[in-house]
Amino acid sequence: EAYLAERRALTSLKHLVDRSYEVIGLWQIICESGFESSVDQMDPVQKDRMRYMKFKDLVINGHEVCSGLISALMNCYLEDSSSTDAISERLRQLCPSLYSSDDAVCTKAGELLTLAKKTVNKAEQTHLLKDALQCYRQVTHQINLELICSILESVRFYEGVVELALYAAHRRDPQGHALHFYKNGESPGDVQGQEAMIARHQCYKCITDCLQRLLAIRQSSAQSPSLPSRPGPPPTPDPNALTPIDAEKYMELTLTLALSSGDELWHVSLYQWLIDNALTDRLLEIKSVHLEAYLKHKTAAQYPNDLKMLDLLWRHYEKTKNYAAAARILSKLAERESGDVSLVQRLEYLSRAIMSAKSSNLRTSSSKEGEFLHELEEKLEVARIQSQVYEALSRRHASRPSPHLQDALNQLNNRLVDVTTLYGEYADLFSLAECKLAIVHCAGHYEPTLIETLWREIIDKELKESSSSSPSDRIALISSKMVALGRTYVHSERYFPLGALVLILERYSAELDWDPTWVFMTMLEIGIPFPVLHGIYDRMFKAKDPCWQAINKPLHVLEVIYHLLTKYLDTPSLMAPYER
């Protein structure tokens, strides 16, 4: 034990002697090189500390001050554009623990960088910058990465910024703990992964900060000129300042260089930067396996409500012609129960989903994809009726606001509902006959009495709402409504009971003493063939319905037939020659 204690004491003594020798050697070099000029380059805080330090303090606790002296000495050489090779070699010989081989590499890199900044010849400058970059790559663990990258950026060596920052990120996390941390949900318990992630992000930030500055310059062209801060002629523009066009060029160059990296976490940081700066179109131009992985990660279970990411994911799938996947994402967005997606957007999503599904079917003939397309088309049909119900309730709410209506509107806007719910809880509850007709037609539900009742309700509603208008205006309104609906249902005879509709309209026309031609003119406008229309009126006349006597218009149908035939005589083209 005594032997070990004595050995430790001798080792400490040797260390003290060596350190004293090195400090004296450093002091000698400083004095030979110009003490005052070197000290003037020191940090003011370190300079004040050194002023009150004894030699003992400088040896035992003065490593930081010694490092400051060395840095100041090197700055003197760099300012004089002198080579640092000789002084570096001497420092390495006299004080190796104060000035390590890594310090020498840093000094050399700084010298090359300083020379590059002063060099006019572009090829020579690039050569110096690449040499400096190689030096910095060797000592990424001890350099001020942010400062070095900003210097490289100032000489427009963006390739160096990207390469150095990404290499430093790798050196700070060689085992890939940060990627494991990211892919496993960023658990707070994974301290090692968290620290690695922070270290990497500090490196990545050097590149994104550079891109941010380029983006700001690029966008400055779109801004209006600012007011001068003082009177007189405008200041002379800096010839070395980047123009928006240059910034655009360098930004694209930097992005291209950055995207060539295989560092997945860097891609994640870059993608997020593009999204944060509303550069999603540029994001979707990226062809990388990491992009899909990133978007899928963002839309996974821990980010289920990230609408922006889901939008980007389907757009990415469309861009890469993965139409089946795009269609399923769009369908998911349409069915999303949330207030952040409006009913209009849901219709758009379903329409795009159908387009994508059709494109997918052109590329593959899978029966499963065909079934999915059919489901989408059915959903879109129901969603359109839901939109019709929503618009009808919106009009009613605008004229007679009520909390009940507002609740119904919110529910319809926040989710897609099935036809049964749409009919029972909305269309029927709020007496929306037109919407109910659309629903039974969509569902293929055929009940003649119900359909005739719905048509009667539609007509009665139009008559009631136009009661204060003149007869000609009322005819125009009802005719317009019948034409609009008739053209929708005319090819579905079960949902357009022509005979019943003509009878209903003619009875109202007779009761109100309206123009006897308007009903058949409306039907002709809908597209009902003249022979069909003539047959209906013929049967109506022969039926001798007592309703005409009841309203004191026994010859009304005959009068209408007269005008109908007159119309034919005036326009023979209403009937084909072979039908006459």
TrEMBL record:
Residues 1-571 form the Nucleoporin Nup133/Nup155-like C-terminal domain. Its main location: nucleus. GO terms for cellular component: nuclear membrane; nuclear pore. It is a peripheral membrane protein. Keywords: Disulfide bond, Glycoprotein, Membrane, mRNA transport, Nuclear pore complex, Nucleus, Phosphoprotein, Protein transport, Translocation, Transport. GO terms for molecular function: structural constituent of nuclear pore. Residues 222-242 are annotated as: Disordered. Residues 228-238 have a biased composition (Pro residues). It is found in: Nucleus membrane; Nucleus, Nuclear pore complex. InterPro entries: Nucleoporin_Nup133/Nup155_C, Nucleoporin_Nup155, Nucleoporin_Nup155_C_1, Nucleoporin_Nup155_C_2, Nucleoporin_Nup155_C_3. One of its GO terms (biological process) is protein transport. Pfam families: Nucleoporin_C. The keyword Phosphoprotein applies. Belongs to the non-repetitive/WGA-negative nucleoporin family. Essential component of nuclear pore complex. Could be essessential for embryogenesis. Nucleoporins may be involved both in binding and translocating proteins during nucleocytoplasmic transport. This is Nuclear pore complex protein Nup155.
